[in-house]
Amino acid sequence: MDATADTLIIFGATGDLARRMLLPSLYFLERDGLLDKRLRIVGAARSALDANGFRALVRDAFLERGEKLDDAWRSFEDRLGYCKLDAEARSDFEHLARMTGERNVYYLSLSPQHYRSACGNLHDAGLATPQSRIVVEKPIGHDLASCRAINACLANAFDESRIFRVDHYLGKETVQNLLALRFANVLFEPLWNRASIDHVQITVAESIGIEGRWGYYDSYGALRDMVQNHVLQLLCLVAMEPPARLDPDAVRDEKAKVLRSLRPIVAADVTEKTVRGQYIAGSMDGHDVPGYTREAGGAASGTETFVAVEAEVQNWRWENVPFYLRTGKRLGDRHTRIVIQFKCVPHSAFGQGDLIPNRLTITLQPEERISLQLMNKTPGLTTEGMRLSPLSLDLSLTEAFGAQRRRIAYERLLLDALAGNPTLFVRADEVEAAWSWIDGIAAAWQETGHAPEPYAAGSPGPAAADALAARKGYRRA
Predict the structure, then answer these.
(1) How confident is the model over 413-435, as pLDDT tens digits?
(2) Is 12 left (phi over 0), alpha (psi -120 to 50) or beta?
(3) What is the DSSP string of 318-345?
(4) pTM, rounded to two decimals
(5) How far apart are CA 22 and CA 414, in angstroms?
(6) Residues 6 or more apart from 29 whose CB is under 8 A from it?
(7) What DSSP string describes 26-73?
(8) DSSP state of 126
């Protein structure tokens, strides 16, 4: 049976995510000839627009991005339709049903508070057909209990195989390249374990603040907003066992095993295993910026904008290998980086002091690069024996594939959702296992009164985050 969708309905089509990411991604797919010729794209939102008004809104959004509309715009524009719809109004869904067919993909670019109503109305209006699929954005809940409630609502209308939970990090080329790096190269996989790897550091550093999202962010914080999804997904791809096949269930089975293997962090060790921080006023790029609470008009808050965790994956491959997870806002620079620190050689024949252990660095942003640090003979002559120095072997995806446009992560995800391939989407048991571990940390913070440590905007974050790794002799990478 052909799994390709006939119609993509974007709920919240006039919102920020749709205008900045979803609709531009679809246009680029159109330009590259990757959209099925039959596909219709219907925007659904509360705005009082018709099809022409929606097309004008989409066109203006592209122009605001600095895009030039080429010949592909005409064919893309012809795909666009519009339906005025309130996710809470049953009658609006009955109107939508008259505009669509059986093989629909519903993309909920909505606040999660509307997920239950949208799912219920899709079901009641007969739109949740066996051939249709639903795509939902994070956050899937605020904790395990609310996550299960949302998952139950989704499951009431759609089979799990037809539920696509988005983590846009999984659409990034370098994230997907982790699978290729590990499982398509015999060089790494035999060493990818506790016998050769000393520790792992995963950092998602943001230079921006909360960008007008204070109301949402203050109820979540860095732990729930970033660690629960993006950071843990990166951890899963680093730590997972080789899947038997590169199919959706095989890959997601292995990721779920990693999440279930995470050692719970409880009140007795939360101070030693975690750091919370909240940015105060500082300087970014030579400009003064306000602190977190000032961005909300001075409201007091105990919400963390930075979190660091020493995590442990309790299985044979990773026993006693610490994973240092960090994320924060208003940090000195923006980068997403995975550092695999290998162990020292057991014996040095060179007799000139300590050798620097090998290190594999996978950079996801701002550029996509993989770098392997090796020891190399320093060129030149000496009477003091062979001198060594570290040298990096670099693979820059930007340079290697410079002729190719750097894609928006949503392009890959939208293409897979339209084709019915859930490999890069998160399954129900994955997201629930992640929430279970996160809830344990949040409960331990509350039990111990573990308050955020202030750090200046533009700094690397709280000093305690360096101390977290330094206890075992490691430096932040």
Answers:
(1) 999 999 999 999 999 999 999 99
(2) left
(3) TTT-EEEEEEESS-SS-EEEEEEEEPPP
(4) 0.92
(5) 8
(6) 35, 411, 414, 415
(7) HHHHHHTT-S-TT-EEEEEESS---HHHHHHHHHHHHHHTTPPP-THH
(8) T
* Peptide bond preceding 366 in cis form (omega within 30 of 0): yes
Buried b (16+ CB within 10 A) or exposed e, 206-224: bbebbeeebeebbebbbbb
Lowest mean pLDDT segment, chosen from 82-91, 216-225, 340-349: 340-349
Provide the pairing of β-strand 322-328 with 197-205. Answer: parallel
Residue 321 confidence (pLDDT) above 90: yes
Work out whether the CA dihedral 418, 423, 425, 428 comes out positive or negative. positive
Q: Which of 23-37, 344-358, 412-426, 431-445 is predicted least confidently?
A: 344-358
Measured in whole angstroms, the distance separating CA 221 from the mean position of its chain's CA atoms is 15
In single-letter form, the type of residue at position 444 comes to: A
Q: Which helix (H) or strand (E) holds 145?
A: helix 144-157
The answer to whether the Cα torsion of 14, 18, 19, 20 is positive or negative is: positive
What are the catalytic residues? 230
Q: What angle do CA 175, 227, 180 make, to 5 degrees?
A: 15
Q: Look up residue 303 and give its amino acid.
A: T
CA distance 318 to 43: 46
